# Entry
Amino acid sequence: MINHITSRSIYYLIAFIFAVISIYPILLMIYSSFKTNAEIFKDPLSIPKSFSLEPYQKLLDQIPFFTFFWNSVFVSAVSVIFILLFGSLAAFYIARYTFWWNNYLFFFFLIGMMIPIKLGIVPLFMLMKDLSLINSLWSLVFIYTATGIPLSILILTGFFRTMPKELEEAARIDGATDIKVFWHVLLPIMRPALGTVMIINFIQSWNDFFFPLVFITNEMKKTIPVGMLSLFGEYSADWGALFAGLTLSSLPMIVLFFIASKQFMEGLTAGAVK
Amino acid sequence: MELETKTHTPVKQKNKRNWRKMAIHLFPIPALVIYVTFIIYPLFAAFSYSLFDWQGIRRGAFIGIENFIALFTREPFNSMFWNAFENNIVYFLLEMVVQNGIAFMLAYIIYKKIRFAEFFKAAYFLPRLLSVIIVGFLWKLILNPNFGALNVLLEKVGLGSWAKAWLGDPDTALIAIILVNSWFGLGFAVLIFLAGLQGIPHDLIEAARLDGANGFKLIWKIILPLMIPSITIMTVLTFIHAFEAFELIYAMQGSMGEPYYSTDTLAVYFYRLAFGSGGANSAAIGLGSALAVVLFMIIATISALFLFVLRRREVQL
# Structure
C-alpha cells in the first residue's frame, strides 16, 4: 500500500514538473511583456511590479502590427474556406460515387501528405512570379489551400463514407440534384469533421513562417510570423517590445485553445492517428 | 458538353438530365487544379531543375547529373552536406530519446488514471499552438547569456557555474535547439502515445497482470509490442520533421546555422543554396535543386521503410 502511494506521488511529481516546463516559458513571455526594459534586464524572472503597457505602445509604434494581424486573418480565413469547400466537394465525389478511377484519385490526393513541399520552393517561387503573386497574399492562400487539401480529403472522405446511403437516396427520390444532396443533406451533418479540418488548417496557416518568408518582402503584406522576423531584426535590443510582440502574436491561438482545447488536441492528432 | 450544343426540343429534357449527370465530375476539379498546380507541378519541376545549369534564376543548358556530382565531390559543398547530414541524424536521434522518451513516460502516467489528466494533457500541448518562429524567438531570449531567464534561474538555485552561452557555443547550440524542439513537440507525442495505450484491450493487460507481469516487465513485454503502430507513426513523423528542420534554426541561429555551421541542417543548407544567402555562386539553384532531390529521396525512402515495417507488424497483431 505504501509502495502504491509513493509510486502515485512520483507519477504526480513527474507530471507536474513537465507541466511547469511546458507552461512556464509561455507565462514568462506573457508577464515579461508588461515589464519595462530596465526591469527585464535587472531580473528576467521577476513578475512585473507595475503592469506597464509601455512595451505594447512601443511595439505598435515600431511595426504595423495590426496590418500583420489582418493579413494573417485574411490568409488563414480564405484558405480555410477554400479547403473546406474544395476538399468536401472532392471528398463527396470520391466517397459517394463509384467511378472506376475514384480510388486512384483518392490515392493521388493522399500522396500529397508524403510530399515535403518545402523542397519545391524554388519552382514554387518561379511559379508565383509568373503568376505575379509575389508580394500578394493570394500566393499564401493558394499554397495553404494546396497543402491542406490532401489531409482534409482523407478526413472528409472517411467521414462521408460512414454516412448511411439511405439519407441520400431519400433525397434523390424527392428529386434532389447532386449539388443539393451535397449541400443540404450531407454537409450539415458533417460538422464535426469540418470542424477538425478547420482547426488543423487554421493553425497551420496562421503559424506558418516559411512561405511568407519566401513570397512576401513588402512590409505591408507580411503575416504575423514574418512580421516578427522584422521586429527581431530591427529592434532586437528592446526586449519589452519583443515580448509584447510574441505575446500578441500567440494570444489568438492561446485564447482559442482555452475555448476548445479538446477539439484542438483531437483535431491536430486526427491526421496522424488515421 | 457536346450534348448541350445539339439540343433541340424533343430531347431537351433528357439532355438536361445528362448534363446534370456530367456536372458531378466538376466536383473534384477545383481541389485537383490547385493541388496539381501548387504541389505536384513544383515537385516535378524541382526534379527537372536539378538537371540544368543555372545562371542566377535563368535556366541554362541541360547538364545531366553534374549538379549531383558537384554536390558530393566539390568543396565546400561536399563537406557542408555531410556536416548538415550528421546534424540531421543527431536531431532525429535526440528527438527520439528526449521528446518521444519523455512523452511515452508522461502518456503512461496519464494512462494510469491520475487526476487532472485533462489539465496535464492541455499543459503539455500548449506550446504546440505557437508558431515555430515565435518558439524560436522566445527561447532565444530565454537562452540569452546575459539577460536570459535560464542562466539567471541557474544562478538563483546555486548552479551559476552551469550558466553559459547556450546558443553561442558549438558544443551546446545544436542540443539546445533540439531540446527547444522537444519542448514544442512533447504534447503532440504524448497524445499519440496515449491514443496507442488506450487502444490496447484492457483484458490483455489484466491477463498479463494475473500471470505475474508487473512494472517494467509489463511495459516491455506487453505494452510496447502492442503499441508498435503509434511508436512507428511517431518515429516516421519525428524522422520527417528532423530532416525538414528549418524554421527553428533559422529563427535562432540564422541561415548559416551558427556558430560555425554547428546547427546547420540539410534544409537550412538547401535554403542557403536556393536563395543565395552567404556567398552563393551562380550554380546555386541547380545545386539547391539537386540537394532537394537528395533530401526528398532520403525522406521518402526512410519513411516508406518505417511504414513497411509498421504494416507488417500490424498484421501480426
